[in-house]
Each structure stands twice: as C-alpha cells, then as structure tokens.
Amino acid sequence: MSCTLHLLVARSDFCHGRCLLLLCRQSLLLRAFSSRPQISRSLRESYRLLQLPGEGGSSPAQVKEAYLRLAKLYHPDSGAATADAVLFARVEEAYRAVLAHQSQTKKRDGVKEAEDEESKGMAPQHRHYLSYEGVGSGTPSQRERQYRQFRVDRAAEQVLDYRQREHERAAAAEGALVERDMRQRSRKIKITQAVDRLVEDLIQESMARGDFRNLSGAGKPLSKFEHNPYADPMTHNLNRILIDNGYQPPWIVTQRDIRETTATFRSRLLEGRARLGDPMTPKEHSQWEQLCGSVGEELVKLNKMVDNFNLIVPMLNMQMVHFSLAREIDRAEKAAHQHRQDQEKEREKERERRKEEKKRTNAAPRLKDTKQGLMSWMQNLLR
C-alpha cells in the first residue's frame, strides 16, 4: 500500500514538472515574439512592392538587386514597354524606406559589435558609408550627392595646388638654369674681350716696330672686293669672305649632290644596257630587271633629296621635278642604241681604212717595179 502511494506521488510530481517546463517554453517564445519589432503596414507595403518577404530578413544586396530589377522595368528613361514614372517613384520610396528600416535594425542589433569595433579603432562599414565625413544634410541619397560634389571640389583644389607647386618648382629650376647660363655667357664674353685686347696689343706693338711697312699697298685703302651698287656693302663683303673661305649655301650643296647622283645612276643604266644584246635573252632580261630595280630604289632617295632642295632653293625657277624610272630607262635604251650605231660606224670606218692601207701596201711594190724597169730602160738607151 505504501509502495503504491509513493508511486502515485512520484508520478504526480513528474507531471507537475513537465507542465512547468511547457509553461516556461511558451513564456520564452512569447517573450521572443514580443521583443521582435513590429513592422508597420506601410513598411510591409514597401516590402511587397519590392517583391521581398515582409519579415525583414532580406540582405542589402537582395534589396538592391530587387530595386535594380524594378528600375529597369519602370524607369521613364529605360525605353521599356512597362515604363511608368509614378510606379517608379513608388518603387524608389519603398527602396529608401526598406534601406532605412534595415539600417535601424542593424543599429539596434549590432550595438555590441559596433562598440567592439570602435574599441579596436575602426568603424563599421555601413557607418562609414552613411557618415560622408559629416558633409551634407537630408536623406541618404541627397547626402550622397552632396558628398560626391564635395569630393569633386576637393579633388579640383588638390589638382590646382599640385599644378601650382609644379609651376613654382619649374620656375625655380628654370631660374637656376638661366642664372648658370648668364654666368657662362659673361665668362665667355670676358675671355673673348681679353683675347681681343691681347691681339690688338700685339698688332699695335708690331705696327710700332714697323713689321707691316714692307707690305704692298701700305697706306692705301683695301680694294679686296669689287663694288656692287645693288647690294649692301657690308652684306657684299660678308658674302665674299664666306665664298673665299669655302662656304657654300645648303641648296647649292644639295644641287651638286643631285647632279652627281643623277650622273651616277644614268651611267650605270647606260653601261648595263650597252653590255646586253639588242634582242635580250631571258637571262639578260632578268639581269636588266634587277639593275632597274636597284636604280628605282636610288630614285626614291633622289626624289626625297629633290623635295628638300625645292624647300630651300631661293628662286622658284630653279626648282626641280621628280625623276621617273620609266623615262630614265627609255633614255638609257636610246643612248645604248645610239652608242651601238656609233660603234658600228667606227668599225665601218676602221674597215675602210684597213682596205685603203692594204691597197696602198699592194700598190707600192708595183710602183717600185715600174720605176726600176724605167730606170733600166733609160740606162740601156743611154748606152
């Protein structure tokens, strides 16, 4: 009897403990639901408009992706058939409301994490993003635009400061170079003046000793250059001095080079064509084409020289035209043909001369025999 009573008491205690456990679990669940922030009807409408779950469990990346997807559909400038300015404005307002709700939730849930990060000397990324260095006021998008303009202005000021520093540095370097050049120029001028004074002193000493008295034309004005009434005397004398010392203007040197190059490749063409037969064989034809190709490369360089000459020549009537390979080949062929004709005439004259010499050589013994016979006849007659 006592055992049965003890069993009943133990069973009742077990049931009572189980009931207490269930009551505790329900109280914890109710506390959790009561601690979760209640979402307003307008915020649920914003989540619904963005096609997101209304419990607020979406990440910022998912919210941004949903906003971009709807913006492509309803933005007035998208060009889509579903473009609607009013609906896009509602989507944008819902996006801002959802972002503000998520930022508040993160601030409320991450107070401890923020305190830990601040203790470590670093701020959360979303705080840094929303801070904008304390610039601007209004909604986050307005503050973002103001902060962008602030960064642009700051960058422009930094660029201007950098350019100003670079200009100052360049001016300082240029001033140092100018000062060094002035010192070098003044030193050269001093040396030149010292040399001129030394030469003048030596000339005066030589004149005092009478070293120049034995020169022809002493005491008479110099008549080195003939007078030119159409030119400035100083310019005329300077030109004569340059000519006497072998100076030649660049266009004269270029003209001489053009003449020498022209004579060289024309002689090459003439000699090469003269060595080949008049009806050329295939082998001779290939040799002639190779020679013409090499001359063509020289003509390209020569035409560039002609262009340079035309740019620096002082008179228009002295300008030259380009050399043509076809004209030069035709000229070489005609010259080679004329050369062959002249050689043929020379050979014909040489044959005629040899015939005449042979005739004179054959006629000389006959005349000698005739003279001897006449002399013997006269001797016999006189006898």
Structural features:
single chain; 383 residues; mainly alpha; 11 helices; 77% helix; elongated; disordered N terminus
- The proportion of residues forming helix, as a percent range, comes to over 70%
Shape: elongated
Mean pLDDT across every amino acid position: 77
Query: Using DSSP, what is the number of strands?
Result: 0
In DSSP terms (H or I, runs of 4 or more residues), the helix count works out at 11
Q: What amount of the residues lies in strands?
A: under 5%
| Structure classification | mainly alpha
C-alpha Rg, in Å? 58 Å
Distance from first to last alpha carbon: 220 Å
Largest sheet: none
The low-confidence runs, each spanning 5 or more residues with pLDDT under 50, are 1-10, 12-17, 27-36, 120-129
SSE pattern, N- to C-terminal:
HHHHHHHHHHH
What does this structure look like?
- The chain is an all-alpha fold and 383 residues long.
- It is built from eleven helices and no strands.
- The protein has helices spanning 2-35, 41-49, 60-74, 85-109, 111-119, 125-131, 140-209, 233-244, 250-275, 282-312, 325-382.
- 6% of the residues are buried.
Summarize the helices and strands and which ones pair or pack.
Layout: H1 2-35, H2 41-49, H3 60-74, H4 85-109, H5 111-119, H6 125-131, H7 140-209, H8 233-244, H9 250-275, H10 282-312, H11 325-382
